Amino acid sequence: MSTTATQTTTITSSSSSSYPAPLVVADDDAANDKAFQSVARGNRSGTLKLRGIPTFTDAVAKRQWMKEHMAAAFRFFGKRGYGEGISGHISMRDPMLKDHFWMNPFAKHFSSIKASDLVLVDADGYVTEGGAQMPINEAGFMIHSEIHKARPDVIAAAHTHSIHGKTWSSFGKPIEMLTQDACNLYGKVGLYEDHGGIALAQEEGEQIARALGEDNIACILQNHGLLTVGRTVDEAAFLFFSLDQACHTQLLAEAAAANGIPKRIITHEVAQYTADVAQNHHNFYTEFQPEYELIVEETNGRVLE
């Protein structure tokens, strides 16, 4: 098969949900994405390729697949200790009802969320039929609804009050390119410097959306926490982890620098070169797949229910 040939993979349901069978997933876009394929090496004939983000032929199956990955993202956040009381949320645009999105139920621990626990809300933030019948976080809706309005390209947005993220946010400064991993985010991180308290007003959500900007993939919310977005919930989850790790690294480096050890910042040229390879939707999606597969294994598939 040539590198430009259409490639399809037939898969069956990965959960107890009732999928149309067979479920056909086309991966032409990923197979032909040279930047994405450049990060791995296959066979000499060029037919062994990275799979990337699947493209579904059935909207119902796509919705279920998205919910399963969203539930796994919450479980991952729980493992990382990103939860704090009722704070923190992920939103995901519904593939069938474009003005609706999915959110986590109010006051349910990230580590216990299953696909069936997710709540479907309308454009005004009211819980609708089709998902779990539980309330959602009001502040979460105020932030996420404005992001989805301002950024049609954003499928998922993640925000929590992770300890390293919110600690670094108190400086009101962007992260520096201290490590190769930080370059995942190079040139794509906004900064919201006007913390207005709990986001219970639409204006606060609008301001956060403006600070995120038109094409950034993340935003540091001063005195608040971190926010990341993606074309998949997998991408938003991995970017949140990557930004939180960068904040942790920054805090450690600042402590060392305060004791006279100079920092060495990655140059613009090297950071941009690294970002040009890393900042790919298929790549960020793939970065999360080891965590997704581990969570499915650890829960014996219960996260998918």
UniProtKB/TrEMBL annotation:
Class II aldolase/adducin N-terminal domain: residues covered: 68-251
One Gene Ontology term, aspect cellular component: cytoskeleton
SUPFAM superfamilies, A to Z: AraD/HMP-PK domain-like
InterPro entries in UniProt: Aldolase-II_Adducin_sf, Aldolase_II/adducin_N, Aldolase_II/adducin_N_sf
GO MF annotation, one: actin filament binding
Superkingdom classification of source: Eukaryota
Pfam family, one: Aldolase_II
Descriptive protein name: Arad-like aldolase/epimerase
Source organism of the structure: Aspergillus heteromorphus CBS 117.55
